[in-house]
Write the structure tokens for this entry.
Amino acid sequence: MVLGALMAELDHMRADVCRFPEEDPADVLMRISGLVGRLAEVRVQLLRSGSQRATMLRTKEVDPLREDLELQFKLHSRRVALMEWELKLSGGGT
């Protein structure tokens, strides 16, 4: 496991999160699902490594990113619900 490669991957994930507001909320929910799955794999790799650098990467970057993705999921789920509600009110979702 190369920590530098994992750090670059985490940077790429964070850049993806920054683009979420510009995207369709339903698409964002699917992307979040994929990112959370990948983060779970990364977290296991870091736990198995047992090195101090791996532990720091997990606690300082992976875990906070997972928490941010949980918040993003809640926010974008709410956006989807509001869009559905607006569609229903406009008579388009009967």
About this structure: The helical segments are 3-18, 25-49, 52-89. The mean pLDDT is 93. The chain has three helices and no strands.
